Amino acid sequence: MAGTSSDQRKPHPLFSPYKMGKFNLSHRVVLAPMTRCRALNGIPQPALVEYYTQRATDGGFLITEGTMISPTAAGFPHVPGIYSKEQVEAWKKVVDAVHGKGGVIFCQLWHVGRASHQVYQPGGAAPISSTSKPISKRWRILMPDATHGTYPEPRALATYEIAEVVEHYRQSALNAIEAGFDGIEIHGAHGYLIDQFLKDGINDRTDEYGGSIANRCKFLIQVVQAVVAAIGADRVGVRMSPAIDHLDAMDSDPLNLGLAVVERLNKLQQDVGSKLAYLHVTQPRYTAYGQTEAGRHGSEDEEARLMRTWRRAYWGTFICSGGFTRELGMVAVAQGDADLVSYGRHFISNPDLVTRLELDAPLNRYVRATFYTQDPVVGYTDYPFLSKGNGSKLPLSRL
Ligand SMILES: Cc1cc2nc3c(=O)[nH]c(=O)nc-3n(C[C@H](O)[C@H](O)[C@H](O)COP(=O)(O)O)c2cc1C
Questions:
Q1: Which of 82, 194, 289 to mutate to test the pocket of ligand 1 (most atoms within 8 A of CB)?
Q2: Is the distance from the beta carbon of residue 343 to the nearest atom of ligand 1 less than 6 Å?
Q3: Per-residue pLDDT for 2 more than 50?
């Protein structure tokens, strides 16, 4: 290193340490939560241990795929749950292996709401939601036999039933902690159950959970409060996507919807005297991940304005996700637009993504056709690591 200025030796902020509450992270590259359909009867299999271990780094932060909080939460084939003893036991193996590599791992708690089908529901019942309006035919549901179907008409939850769903989140959070997870992420994004309450393009309720922004935020905030009371704010992250229309999740005023959520999370942090682990927001530029490469793209300026407004308003760690390249991630962190950046598709095809980004090494291309297939190896754990030949350039901390 003779002749190198100390400035040149300093890692770029994307690869520099960050303290996320009680967690000391060694870099800012996060594994985004991604459904991969490799569980069996709701139970994580050895392939999941391998997959998450491959993507773990010392001091790196991983978020699991969406994980069912109850039997009615399912809307994809072969997704894992966290509501039964057997599921908790199986997750322990994943968590232990990730911890063995020094990683920090949160479990994403998921209920798909109306984004389901009778075939996934106990007793062949209709999926539950904030509404009885189905998702439009523009969207197709992946069926257990790998064909695509139409989303059926959901059953709107009665007001008195909502507390029970909140309880499922609370219990699942406790289960996640029992499994050894460092925390949980509440999936409030992408058109699933919580988003079905948040957005006025879906929520047509006339009770205290519908109508005004305050009412539409109520379900999410009750879930956050219940989970925070159970496991502590510093183990809870929240994901939202106010500006994303995935599964018809449109809102007439995404900016203010996002701000309303942020304000309530800030207040909750103040009330409990502790920060949440983070707020995770999906960029509008990334939509329709399951369906096509190009979703509805807004203008870059408008998008940056939305993200920056929420980022500035939120009192805590802010994670951005959606369409990040190495360069965009570096800019986002360097400019203070994000504390951490979560990577999805590139992390599917590059188990050693952190190293590759750090070295500016070429990336493997992801294969969309195997995103949601069930083979425990193909398209899952068989993406190659950088070859040994590149090893000499690896920084010691990652070897
Ligand atoms: C195959 C696949 C599955 C996904 N599953 C989830 C999920 O379970 N929960 C979630 O919050 N986001 C999910 N996402 C969205 C990702 O977390 C991420 O926000 C998205 O892929 C955008 O990041 P990228 O452009 O880096 O891929 C999924 C994305 C992909 C590609």
A1: 289
A2: yes
A3: no
